[in-house]
């Protein structure tokens, strides 16, 4: 798998689809880290070929505008962009 | 990993800041955040050959990414509507002065694609009129300028209007 795991308290499965160069993606990762929440992320811009195509399709399923960060929680809920309020609410931070 | 030195970041940051201010634009005053984005522009320059928007997934094919070369075609519309460009590298005056907060904003690119215009109504003007897709600057001359005098976008960002 292409995801990198960042340790912390488990509040369900938190996946961040990110870009390595994007400021809001960095803020999202930092926010979860600062609050000690476990998550996994993938920097889609660093992937190539089939791997990238596969992940892009995955992101588009949740977020057709293919924007970043796209955060998927427990395979059931999707947060688009760095939305601190929504993240606090959903992850009980 | 692509290495970019602090000196390179500083140099481009100062250049962009000056150009922005000379043209009535503002860089985000959160300098750490802003310099992170400037560094990302330099990374994208190294890996793609152009300043692909740091917050969008570039295809790596310049023709397909023209609309998202920084400053992108969507910057000014987002500045007007949200007080910041999509990455929040550029912000409105109120945001720059701390009167307004900036947050992550929706992606304008796919939701509202800008059509490239390629048929021109019959015109009896002496010169064609070119429009800068980044800032809207218009000029009537045989070819668009090499660099937009207002926003510094390159010639390839102009479209023929009339
Ligand atoms: S103007 Fe802002 S949103 Fe547009 S390409 Fe540059 S950094 Fe990205």
SSE ordering of chain B: HEHHHEHEEE
Question: Percent of residues of chain A in helical segments?
Answer: 25-40%
CATH level 3 topology of chain A: Glutaredoxin
Number of strands of chain B: 5
Largest β-sheet summary of chain A: 5 strands, mixed
Oligomer: heterodimer
Tell me which protein chains meet in the greatest interface and how many residues each side has: A-B, 22 and 22 residues
Proportion of residues in helical segments of chain B: 25-40%
- The total tally of domains of chain B equals 2
N-C termini distance of chain B: 45 Å
Core attributes:
heterodimer; A: alpha+beta; Glutaredoxin; 37% helix; B: 162 residues; alpha+beta; Ferredoxin Thioredoxin Reductase; Rubrerythrin, domain 2; 2 domains; 3-stranded antiparallel sheet; two-stranded antiparallel sheet; globular
Provide structural commentary:
The complex is a heterodimer of chains A (93) and B (162). With 93 residues, chain A is of the alpha+beta class. Chain A has a single domain, classed as Glutaredoxin (3-Layer(aba) Sandwich). Chain A has helices spanning 23-34, 49-62, 84-91; strands spanning 4-6, 14-18, 39-43, 70-73, 77-80. Chain A has a 5-stranded mixed beta sheet with strand order 1-3-2-4-5, covered by helices on one side. Chain A is globular and about 35 Å long. Chain B has 162 residues and is an alpha+beta fold. Chain B has helices spanning 6-22, 31-48, 62-65, 75-82, 93-96, and strands at 26-27, 90-91, 129-132, 138-140, 158-160. In chain B, strands 4-3-5 form a 3-stranded antiparallel beta sheet, with no helix packed on it. Chain B has a two-stranded antiparallel sheet with strand order 1-2. Chain B is globular, with a radius of gyration of 17 Å. Chain B starts with 5 loop residues before the first helix and ends with a strand. The site of iron/sulfur cluster has 14 residues of chain B, from loops. Iron/sulfur cluster binds at residues 37, 53-55, 68, 70-72, 75, 85-87, 89-90 of chain B.
């Amino acid at each position: 798998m292409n995801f990198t795991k960042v340790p912390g308290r488990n509040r369900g499965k938190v996946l961040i689809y990110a870009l390595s160069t994007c400021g809001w993606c960095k803020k999202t990762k930092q926010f979860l880290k600062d609050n000690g929440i476990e998550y996994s992320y993938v920097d889609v811009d660093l992937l190539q070929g089939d791997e990238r195509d596969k992940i892009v399709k995955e992101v588009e399923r949740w977020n057709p505008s293919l924007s970043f960060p796209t955060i998927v929680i427990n395979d059931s809920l999707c947060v688009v962009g760095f939305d601190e309020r929504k993240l606090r609410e959903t992850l009980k931070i | 990993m692509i290495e970019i030195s602090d000196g390179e970041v500083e140099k481009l940051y100062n250049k962009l800041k000056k150009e922005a201010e000379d043209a009535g634009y503002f860089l985000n005053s959160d300098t750490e955040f802003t310099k992170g984005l400037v560094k990302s522009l330099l990374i994208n320059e190294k890996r793609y050959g152009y300043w692909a928007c740091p917050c969008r997934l570039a295809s790596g094919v310049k023709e397909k990414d023209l609309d998202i070369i920084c400053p992108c075609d969507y910057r000014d519309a987002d500045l007007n509507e949200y007080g910041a460009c999509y990455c929040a590298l550029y912000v409105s005056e109120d945001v720059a002065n701390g009167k307004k907060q900036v947050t992550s904003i929706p992606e304008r690119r796919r939701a509202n694609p800008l059509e490239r215009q390629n048929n021109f109504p019959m015109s009896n003007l002496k010169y064609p009129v070119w429009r800068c897709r980044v800032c809207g600057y218009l000029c009537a001359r045989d070819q668009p300028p090499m660099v937009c005098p207002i926003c510094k976008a390159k010639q390839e960002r102009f479209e023929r209007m009339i």
